[in-house]
């Protein structure tokens, strides 16, 4: 622990995930005072048919 | 906020998700008294090998 | 299944949850064509120190 | 209820999930004293680009 | 990894959680072939007003 | 979106959450190229009886 889950609509590159994992882990380790290797980061890409805001799917926007 | 996550075994159509997003957002906005555009709905389709009830995968039922 | 998780900042009453459970279950059962007793709804109340938007905790808004 | 979610990096077989569903359901039913058919188990396979430990994606290890 | 989340309506004892953590970790480690110290188990107790089945809160059953 | 969930064993201060929300939002907004006000961060504090590693509750370590 800590465990960080990041949900985004699909379309981010592996390079963006790589950088997010690095930056977020640094911030969490530093602020919560734990070694970086105890920080876990998970990504969850959502399809455009799988996220809605205001009652409308992103697919339809 | 509010944030609504809906998990289902795969097989629902985009049209069903579209309607779910609409109906669920209306209900949540009305009952919790927030504008609809602050309601977020997420869908998560599970494969039949990824959900079990009573110790048996849906795949095997 | 289906399983519906609803996350909100704390402050909703039991009566609001009761009505949400009813309305959301009806919508999900009707649209996905499953009996209502197979629909599960979960609520998660977040404290104002536990949700941030735009980098600012709700507590500080 | 209870509801058990199991997240793993992809690569487990259906046979492993089948056995996990069975063993975990037995343990949960027995220890929490509920009938097995009220225990629900969900699997979530993560791609190697979707999990990082120590700031590094599994993909890059 | 693996990561196991167990959601239950409140009322389980610490001793039951202790035993669940042990039994579930053993099953997951053995079946997925990972060392036990890489298995993480999380519990989430739900209040009776926070879980509904068939459109009715457990509180009202 | 994006949505970031951070799970930690209890004991972090509001000030640490405030700083985490700020730093993580900055990183996510910058790397994924979205305005900060579309980034949502959630914290989930786990009790020491609610997290186990290697089959042992943190409470017992």
Automatic annotation (TrEMBL), chains A, B, C, D, E, F:
The keyword Nucleotide-binding does not apply. Residues 2-58 form the 4-oxalocrotonate tautomerase-like domain. This is Tautomerase. Belongs to the 4-oxalocrotonate tautomerase family. Its EC number is 5.3.2.-. It is an enzyme of class 5 (isomerase). Keywords: Isomerase. Signal peptide: none annotated. It holds the Pfam family Tautomerase. InterPro entries: 4-OT, 4-OT-like_dom, Tautomerase/MIF_sf. The keyword Isomerase applies.
């Amino acid at each position: 622990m800590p465990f960080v889950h990041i949900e985004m609509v699909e379309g981010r590159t592996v390079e963006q995930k790589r950088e997010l994992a690095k930056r977020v882990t640094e911030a969490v380790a530093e602020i919560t005072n734990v070694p970086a290797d105890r920080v876990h980061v998970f990504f969850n890409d959502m399809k455009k048919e799988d996220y809605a805001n205001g009652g409308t799917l992103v697919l339809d926007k």
